[in-house]
Amino acid sequence: MSTMASQPIVTPVAPRESPAVVEALEVGKRFGSHAALKDVSLRVMAGESHALVGRNGAGKSTLVSILTGLRKSDTGEVRFGGEPAPPISDRDAWRERVACVYQHSTIIRELSVAENLFINRQPSRGGMIDWHAMRRDARALLDHWKIDVREDARAGDLTVEARQLVEIARALSYGARFIILDEPTAQLDGDEIKRLFRRIGELQREGVTFLFISHHLQEVYEICQAVTVLRDARHIVSAPVSALPREKLIEAMTGERGGLAVTDAASRAALPADTAVALQVENLAGADYDGVSFDLKRGEVVGLTGATSSGRTSVAEAIAGLRAAKRGTIRVDGKVLPPGDVPAALAHGIGCVPKDRHHEGLVLSQSVAENASMTIARMLGKFGIAPPAKKNAFGRKMIDALGIVAQGPEHVVSGLSGGNQQKVVMARALATDPNVLVLIDPTAGVDVKSKEALLSVVDRVREEGKAVLIVSGELDDLRTCDRVLVMFRGRVAAEFPAGWQDHDLIASVEGVSLHEE
Questions:
Q1: Is 250 helix (H, G, I), strand (E, B) or coil?
Q2: Using CA atoms, how far apart are residues 344 and 324, in angstroms rounded to an integer?
Q3: What DSSP string runs through 98-156?
Q4: pLDDT tens digits for 9-66?
Q5: In whole angstroms, how far apart are CA 228 and each of 10, 63, 273, 369, 388?
Q6: Mind listing the pLDDT tens digit for each residue in 217-261?
Q7: Domains in the chain and their CATH numbers?
Q8: Which residue ranges run through the membrane (predicted)?
């Protein structure tokens, strides 16, 4: 691949006469010797959805922390409506201007919707919280912004979609009309995404402006009018979305020409008919799935997809021992796997990259070496206590094998980008040299180059004769699969051999047939 020139690939959006809702002007930020932002500028106009994209480590999170007043820039300035941003210490002034709805919700699940909307500013009477007034004001706020949620509902009982809308309503109640959405669709299925996008469009027409952060580039084209690309802590380009086709957008993000380079299984030779079966799933049933059966051969990559609510994740977690199925049988190399038993799954030769890397895949306070070697501690030392030298040696091996960008095996995982954290999770899954690798949303929330690196691992372990199950809603993940099983409402509804068309697979996921007579 050829490297891009340093000049922007599209002429930046020309300044407009009316003041921008928010501007970052030549903003710079350093953490010790590391430059997190280098003279970055951003201009978001009223009523638009403006995408902010870039690989993990490009500087997006640092820029957001400066735009929301959580950090002060070392150089440059932030302006709202043409006026300088308030002092960092004036939190109320920042809340009146900007809010961020993060991928991991800040809603307190144990409290009601009304309590979350007015937390730390509840109406009072006689020194006591006026519960009636708070519920009344919450209902009025929800009705004003057309958010169909009960004010007395427990927040933890709401859908992810509803919790996001409550967070948006809370931000708007402070007076903010500039909302940053950080990976808002990461935990939503197709219908929920469509509803969220409709609501964003309605809010735009009512004068709300959005900064939209997503690794799902197709969403940029669906919802945004303008896009800014960061790369290596620098501003690369700002342009109307219509002027930046997907290939050019990826080129700006990566510094290389072309799209996502992943192996398409359609070009792969078929496995011999007598290839041994590595994994057998027979009539598996659980809380949100029933009657699921399929086989997975050695050297085969099978995709399992469907809407978030289809049951696909639960099936994968049952295979990996993370949860017990109600009935059915899972066999690995002919041996029955006991239900809901992670150590047994590991012992039977199953490796897993779980859905939630922060809670199930990593100990963020520990090093790369400690995380990567967690499943093989008994092999590295007596009584499960591995000497640091052996752990670090294994950590260095995995850093080299997976291209993990870290200062060394002792680098604490919390200090890595999302893509490199996911590579550490992959390292842990591969540490036991599994015969069956179960990958649940393996590229969710990671940048383009990290996706390529993670999917190249799939091709490598397949060539070693291992079986791979990729459980994902990402089309790029599924292109590496020899066949794709589609789950709909808890059952396997269709199977697609490699070479499927996007629209056919998407229609099947949504429960629609494009070829009915």
A1: helix
A2: 12
A3: -EEE-SS----TTSBHHHHHTTT---EETTEE-HHHHHHHHHHHHHHTT----TTSBGG
A4: 343 444 445 679 999 999 999 988 788 899 999 999 998 999 998 876 788 989 999 9
A5: 11, 12, 50, 36, 43
A6: 778 898 999 999 998 899 999 999 999 888 788 788 777 655 556
A7: 1-9+19-98+178-259 (3.40.50.300), 107-175 (no CATH), 260-349+437-443+464-517 (3.40.50.300), 357-431 (no CATH)
A8: none
> pTM of this prediction?
0.60
* Helices vs strands, H then E, count in the chain: 17, 22
Q: How many CB atoms lie within 10 A of CB 452?
A: 18
The residue type of 453 is A
The first and second tokens of residue 408, run together, are 């060394």
Residue 345 neighbours by CB under 8 Å, 6+ apart: 319, 320, 321, 337, 352
Instruction: Please tell me the distance from the alpha carbon of residue 82 to that of residue 18, in angstroms, as a whole number.
Output: 9
Phi, psi of 191 (to 5 degrees): -65, -40
Instruction: Determine the Cα–Cα distance for residues 353 and 370; give it in Å rounded to an integer.
Output: 16
